[in-house]
Design a protein that fits this description.
Blueprint lengths: L4 E4 L4 H17 L3 E7 L10 H23 L5 E7 L2 H8 L5 E5 L8 H12 L4 E4 L10 E4 L4 H17 L3 E6 L16 H17 L2 H4 L5 E6 L4 H9 L4 E5 L13 H8 L5 E4 L9
Parallel strand pairs: 1-2, 1-4, 2-3, 4-5, 6-7, 6-9, 7-8, 9-10
Antiparallel strand pairs: 5-10
């Protein structure tokens, strides 16, 4: 079965950008697209048929969105779905049978649509989630993926490598971490402590990309180890000139109960470029 790319649509500029991005991807991969628009009428008092009015408005909005999408990529099969309730819940539910969920970034202010929609969807979706902003993509190139040695990061690399090979882009695999402050090493035996840690993380980076050369012989892969920058800051800087940024849903941090890791959360709140959060569902670790 050819799973659809599910696109959350509303009347924001970033939503329109997300629809365009999704339509282009669908045309290239020959996948159908489902446009989903949520009418959140949970807290609306149904006075004089007001609920019916906003539902009718939603139907008209989806019809217009479908027309615009069809003009973008006439070969793509498009369906629409008008749902009641929160957009985050609706898209999360549909992600179980979707190839990808695509959503606009919204606005970055506290409590804005980014917090209400993109972060919620990225946290609960069961498939990759692409968050698209209003970025000028002129002169941007390359795909960047963040790694930290976790299984989620390894899956993110696999996804990013396939994307880079398909698009003919170079792949940058970035592993960033801060070496301990000097006071942390007090009482530690006199060894080359920082070099030991750095070498261990260099091995983590090498193991993460192992096998890519055999699977994608024409793919150019750059390995970057940054020991002076926090992961989110490094990814934001690298993504500022990239065509695409790929991040795992969670890393190897201590808070495994969190649905969305702190690095992915930070990247989404300051979106540097089109960003895909991979494998949102938790990875089952074998005993």
């Amino acid at each position: 079965m050819n799973e659809a790319i599910v696109v959350g649509v509303n009347d924001s500029p970033s939503s329109e950008a997300a629809m365009g991005w999704a339509m282009h991807r669908a045309a290239v991969l020959k996948q159908p697209v489902q446009l989903v628009h949520a009418v959140d009428d949970r807290w609306v008092y149904d006075a004089v048929g007001y609920n019916e009015w906003i539902r009718e408005s939603g139907i008209n909005f989806l019809a217009a969105a479908k027309d615009r999408a069809a003009k973008m990529e006439p070969t793509v099969n498009i369906t629409t779905d008008l749902v009641s309730g929160g957009a985050g819940y609706a898209l999360g539910k549909r992600s179980k049978k979707a190839a990808m969920v695509v959503i606009g970034s919204g606005h970055g202010w506290a409590g804005g649509s980014l917090t209400d929609r993109a972060l919620q969807v990225a946290a609960v979706a069961r498939c990759p989630v692409a968050v698209i902003g209003e970025h000028d993509m002129t002169h941007r190139k390359g795909i960047v993926v963040g790694v930290d040695g976790s299984e989620e990061a390894t899956q993110a690399v696999a996804f990013a490598a396939a994307e880079a090979d398909r698009q003919g882009q170079e792949l940058t695999v970035l592993h960033a971490f801060l070496t301990p402050e000097p006071w942390v090493t007090r009482g530690v035996p006199h060894t080359n402590y920082f070099e030991v840690i750095t070498e261990e993380e260099r091995v983590v980076l090498a193991e993460t990309v192992a096998g890519l050369a055999d699977k994608y012989p024409d793919l150019v892969v750059h390995q970057v180890l940054d020991t002076h920058t926090r992961p989110a800051e490094a990814l934001l800087a690298a993504g500022a000139t990239a065509q695409l940024l790929v991040v795992g849903s969670r890393g190897r941090g201590s808070f495994k109960r969190l649905l969305l890791g702190s690095t992915a959360h930070a990247v989404l709140t300051k979106l540097p470029c089109p960003t895909i959060i991979t494998r949102i569902s938790a990875v089952k670790h074998s005993d």
